[in-house]
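Students often ask what a holo structure prediction actually looks like on paper. The answer is less mysterious than it sounds. You provide the chain, you provide the ligand, and the output is a string of discrete structure tokens encoding the 3D arrangement of the protein together with adenosine monophosphate.
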Amino acid sequence: MKRICVFCGSSPGTGDQYMDAAGKLGLALLGHNLSLVYGGAGVGLMGVIANTFMENNGEVVGVIPKALFDKEVACTYLTDLRVVDTMHERKSLMAELSDGFIAMPGGLGTIEEFFEVLTWAQLGIHQKPCGILNVNGYFDRLTDFLDHAVSQRFIGKDCRSLVLMDHDPEILIQKMKAYQAPEVDKAKWALGMVQS
Ligand code: AMP
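The corresponding structure tokens follow.
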């Protein structure tokens, strides 16, 4: 792995815990000589992780749509800031540039971006690891929901195993490095041809 894409909030969340966690994730990624790909914004957790990289001589590629350049206060001092036309272009370029994906606490944008790359993994479009940094139990209810979806047979166990998770950035990175993409055949599973 060379470049990790981090999806996270354009908001700071409550208290310092989320902002601090973004800085810690940045330092952990830097400790593994990994570069950062992210949405190019200078606000919220996004701004913290980008600044952590830039202050420590890390490499950062930001990808931001024109329409959000001012709204999300684009970080113009990154190693490389790509300004694209649409949200879809943003997501596909971020995915193409990255060797793995991490979601930190965030809002609708974060959830949407993470689930898109996860569903691409489910379809075998890529074999890259998808991890969640579960800061302060933020994603506990999402975990419960995914388990519920498995119990109700809307998500296969092999697809569920695509989601790596830890509260510790170092352990999450280790899990991502060790990740071997499972054989996931969503089409067969959905048709009930495999027991999962
Ligand atoms: P949020 O988690 O809502 O604070 O958003 C985090 C990032 O996701 C921000 O840079 C948003 O611009 C971005 N975002 C929100 N919706 C989308 C979308 N549909 N496609 C791509 N990025 C998005």
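The chain has eight helices and seven strands.
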